[in-house]
Amino acid sequence: TAGITQAPTSQILAAGRSMTLRCTQDMRHNAMYWYRQDLGLGLRLIHYSNTAGTTGKGEVPDGYSVSRANTDDFPLTLASAVPSQTSVYFCASSDSANTEAFFGQGTRLTVV
Amino acid sequence: GQSLEQPSEVTAVEGAIVQINCTYQTSGFYGLSWYQQHDGGAPTFLSYNALDGLEETGRFSSFLSRSDSYGYLLLQELQMKDSASYFCAVSHSGNTPLVFGKGTRLSVIA
Questions:
Q1: How far is CA B62 from the centre of its chain?
Q2: Residue B22's CB: how many other CB atoms inside 10 A?
Q3: Interface contact B60, partner A, CB < 8 A
Q4: Residue spans of alpha helices (H) in B3-93
Q5: Per-residue pLDDT reduced to its tens digit, B86-105
Q6: What is the mean pLDDT of chain A?
Q7: Is B95 on the interface with A (CB under 8 A)?
Q8: pLDDT at residue number B1
Q9: What are the start-end ranges of the E strands in B30-83?
Q10: Measuring CA to CA, which residue among B99, B91, B50, B95 is closest to residue A96?
């Protein structure tokens, strides 16, 4: 079972450029999330979606946008990257009970 | 808002027992979870507590006291492979995202 797949696994991006981080799950989970992880700051929520067609803002949403056109996919877009967006990005999903979240392997993004 | 506090680092000896504490402040409470993350890897689920008491899964146990807004993760018979970061997380309803603590880095030494 693939679970959650993120792409790319790593990327170096020039400041000012745009980029979409891809996330696909095959567990038919309703809820999906994007977190960023920075040393000493833990996992911080960027955006989330409770079901296809709906999205919500997390703790650190500025500079990021998401869409949820269907159950399986939840892409994260950086419209104009800045160096402070250098981080490891994790996509996750959970079922309706929200008792367990499943994480992708992460995307390591470096903005230069 | 929600906030969680856990120690930043813990060191323990192989074969010993270690307890990682987590206190939380939240406007509502649905459950407390624990996740393990090895360096370079993704967080993986360890346990979930919605009710007071101890939940045991092999060498790992998790405890919750809702009245004290407190929980802990107990790791027994420590092994070197248990060296990792451990995160507590809370949700305040069934359809709200998990909010994570900053993590506790556990180092197991010989």
A1: 7
A2: 26
A3: no
A4: none
A5: 999 998 776 788 899 999 99
A6: 95
A7: yes
A8: 66
A9: 31-37, 44-49, 53-57, 60-65, 70-75
A10: B95
